[in-house]
């Protein structure tokens, strides 16, 4: 998961656990911890980043916009069941991502050697995440985006090889176990009907 594109890691901050859905951005501390685990240079020094409630709310909105883009990417297949009813419509999602990506200015400075300087006017975190989304969705990997069909999984993933069906080995094992359990129950039900 660490080698997944940043846009996919952002979308994957909503996960399914035994007790239901978890949201890494449910608290300011959760968002801070997640950001500190990312490389968002040159936009943001994540080691010193601390979220506040305003940043958390705006980041959740941006994440939902990115999840709406993932839902569109897998269409006509159904989107992740985690939040498909709570996603913004595509035009609204695009507008949010584009406005968050826009306020940056790159320039080249030459003193002893050429250096890139990045000026971000506005929310640096939003700019980093939105630009990662633009790069991903406009890039070559988009046709390989899938929604994991494993029971209770709510993740999107990039299909890395032709036989990959699930986002992870654990989801593949869970799906196979569920199929086996379902087959055994069907056999048991038909055997019981024959004996009655």
UniProtKB/TrEMBL annotation:
It comes from the Bacteria. Pfam families: ABATE (PF07336), zf-CGNR (PF11706). Coiled coil: none annotated. Residues 145-183 form the Zinc finger CGNR domain. This is CGNR zinc finger domain-containing protein.
